[in-house]
Write the structure tokens for this entry.
Amino acid sequence: MAFKNLLRGAAVAAFLASKVEAVDNGLAITPQMGWDNWNSFGCDVSETLLLQTAQLIVDYGLKDLGYHYVILDDCWSIGRNASHNNSLIANPEKFPNGMAAVADQLHALGLGFGMYSDAGKYTCGGYAGSLGYETVDANTFAEWGVDYLKYDNCFNMGQAGNQMISSARYEVMANALNATGRPILYSLCNWGEDYPWNWGSTIANSWRISGDVYDSWDQPDSRCPCDGPDAWNCGLPGFHCSVTNIMNKASFIVSKAQPGAWNDLDMLEVGNGAMTDAEYVAHFSMWAAAKSPLILGNDIRVVPAKDLAILSNAAVIAVNQDPSGSSAARRWMYSTDSTDAYGGSALQLWSGSLKSTTGGQYNDMVVLLINGANETMVMNATLADIFVDSGAAGTARQVKISWEARDLWANRMSEAEAQAIIDASSATGNATNGYNATMVGSGRYNATKTSYAQGLKNNDTLLLGNVTTTVGPSGTVTATVERHGAALFRLRALPTGVKKRDEL
Ligand code: GAL
């Protein structure tokens, strides 16, 4: 009997293990983090840009926070070498020392090297694509020391239109990467075409769910045609998709995210200048709670201090990197009379389960309130709505206990501290004290030393936010939220079963 149970236990463990590593390369067990040049530089890529940025990622403490991959996007090659296996040739003007040298230098800094190619004849920028050259290109990438591949969808020669055709095309590169024996994180970029959330998890670590993000909260753009209730079902993903457009698309497919396989909401726009501070806070909170990869998309050489402070919030990143890997879901959204210039007015509640930080029977819960109205709003979320997954209409046992509501933005680094970090970097040439920025701000989290999972287990206060209020049984989380802003809380169960004096 005991043996039988043991066997059953082993089978369950094996099942869980296989579930945890969807694509079976052991990577992206939590959403990948890094930087990609596309949003702020487009085709203007070079070795100098990558290495300067990499140094800043280290100096500004971003590497310590988990931003690991430095991803080179489109426009880096000059074609194929007919006398050497048809392998891709890096542009010698942009990369005078070659890609292997870039990889070496990134590795020496403790960072990973991300590469870009396209499952088509050409890349979106019109350079040589990898369709038909998967094996030779995967081998080249592995030889160079590449750790990550973003794989695009332009010029796919009509090999799209249903899930089988698209997944088969993307699987060729998955197999080629696996065959190299080098662990290479595989990031699909087919913009949600042919529902990659249905098949991406078996071959890749993440898949883009939309057309390209745009540095705007909710500006509609006819080049990103899909919006509204059917937005997820998008035959023409396009580009210039606002943050709220992508949020709406994500809301339908949150259940598809799991350890090793993530919905990719596209690169961050924080720091690119066109949104308000509140909008960038909401954008970052949303991407974190939805378990999107967190890929910086700004020019780090000129990052404003207030944006560095957003990107450095370890308590918010800890939600994204939570070991349970389950995405928050939208619980409600409704319109208000306060409409902005683009017609946006919606208030939204998202919530999702996190690993318990008390070690008790109740998981922590992330609560995200988003104010899309045109003015500051007092927003309320009932425990019944927050915990609706555990029981409809307030029947969840979590509704019957008390919670700490811990404000995850309360400990945002001050602008002065962020500026001091920028000023102390030798890479910006600003250093006055001769010390490295990672020495500034002693209270900063270092995920390269202690993983977020371990930090949460240790109850590290840098990851838990500030207790703002306690919420009693059947209570309500309340927050005053700026126009186009967000409030983000970690709910943490208060001990139960302690009888009050007068009950004894
Ligand atoms: C798009 C992709 C962008 C960027 C660009 C490069 O298809 O979605 O993120 O990689 O191509 O040309």
